[in-house]
Amino acid sequence: MFNRISKKYDFLNHFLSMGIDKLWRKKAIRLLSEKPVESLLDIATGTGDFAIEALKLNPKQVIAADISEGMLQVGKDKVKKKKIDHIISFELGDAENLRFENDSFDAITVGFGVRNFENLEKGLADMYRVLKPSGQVAILEFSKPRKFPIKQLYHFYFLNILPFVGRIVSKDASAYTYLPESVQEFPDGQKFLNIMEKIGYKNIKQHPVSFGIASIYMGEK
Fold this sequence. Notes:
With 221 residues, the protein is α/β, with parallel strands linked by helices. The protein has a single domain (2-144, 187-220), classed as Vaccinia Virus protein VP39 (Rossmann fold, 3-Layer(aba) Sandwich). It is 45% helix and 23% strand. It has helices at residues 2-16, 20-32, 49-53, 69-81, 120-130, 150-170, 175-185, 190-199; strands at residues 39-43, 61-66, 88-92, 105-111, 131-142, 202-209, 214-220. Strands 3-2-1-4-5-7-6 form a 7-stranded mixed β-sheet, sandwiched between helices. The longest helix is centred in the last third of the chain and has 21 residues, at 150-170. 40% of the residues are buried.
């Protein structure tokens, strides 16, 4: 599915979120900036937007991993055009079976990817394994707003407008109906914090953004 929509993915992401997704990534990177980051892993990188934003941390190395070859190719073309391909490297990789050794990275980012993990706890545990002691994770994911009228507006947009526009532009009927379905099923908020705590993460915290439309989850090893 992600291979099929890879060419339209960036346009639809920014268009359907009205560009707010860029602000969310910027905030997540600012939250990571309290500690020095030399090595960073961006999981479920898609076309690499989070990895590119992470360059503001001045890392020596950024590895961007995804299971979609189509997404990775778009990302490779993007960083080559920006002439930052000497810092960011893209590779095919499964978030639940990372090839890296224990204690490899100062920071790990995931943008709108953890809800796609086949086994959420396994994916979070493997992230924890490859994170250095005192290393940080920043997980950006959609949430379900609870307050009126944002809750009602959000649900109307997610269930009606977004799938319609996504289907017309991407020519893929399933991709943008999958998005709201996966968001509804994702254990957001305190439930997700509980899972992070169960895995072993410390100093975990949720930072809601844009009235709770999305959240940045922070944690340390």
